[in-house]
Amino acid sequence: MLEARYRHHLDRYMVEPFLPYLKRVLTPDQLTGLSLIWGLIAASAVALKWPTLATAALLLSGFADMLDGALARHIQRTGPFGCCLDIVTDRIVEGTIILGFFAANSQNAWACLLMLFSTLLCVTSFLVVGLFIPNSSEKSFHYSSGLIERFEAFVFFIVMVWLPQEFNVLAVTYIVLVLWTTGYRLFQARQILRM
Q1: Are 28 and 16 in contact (CB under 8 A)?
Q2: What's the CA gap between 145 and 124, in Å, rounded?
């Protein structure tokens, strides 16, 4: 939601200034790989209860994820494989972060399981809606925004890292918002496909 609304500002001030330099040293797929590596470091830091490293690595993972697609569009090297790689690595990062919360405290097992389940449903709705609705954006397929997207998920993860005593309350809030996003996407798709 927030990323979709403010993405043009983020691109203008935080992404576009780096693109001329990045195109000389990295490919979009390498940036996707860096996003994955930083995400796995973040997950390990979550499991080890190292909040500062977890936060920094999550932010670097998210930043590399913003840069990969922007760089691909900048050098006109967008393609289906890059899109697939980006989506898969994003899910690996999110899944391992949630597993990190379980590793940090096994009493979080049910909350983590439900977070994974809600994320699975949300991603499925995102992909299915993107499959059937014609694309009108610069992305590789129709991008259906929702209340909880990657930016908001990372905000939740960072708050959970710093407030582990509130994990269950935050997890329930996350699950409800993710399920709401799933339902909203399906409702939105129904309205568009009926026209």
Answers
A1: no
A2: 13
**In terms of DSSP H, where are the helices of the chain?**
2-10, 19-25, 28-47, 51-74, 80-104, 109-132, 150-162, 167-194
Domain that holds residue 110: 2-194
CATH number (domain holding residue 81): 1.20.120.1760
* pTM summary value: 0.88
Total domains present in the chain: 1
* Banded pLDDT at 148 (limits 50, 70, 90): confident
CA dihedral over 178, 159, 149, 147, signed as positive or negative: positive
Report whether 148 contacts 174 (CB < 8 A).
yes
d(CA 56, CA 59): 5
Q: Is the distance from CB of 43 to CB of 96 less than 8 angstroms? A: yes
**pLDDT per residue as tens digits for the range 98-125:** 999 999 999 999 999 999 999 999 999 8
- Angle formed at CA 2 by CA 67 and CA 90, multiple of 5 degrees: 45
Span 127-138, pLDDT tens digits: 888 777 776 656
What's the mean per-residue pLDDT of the chain?
88
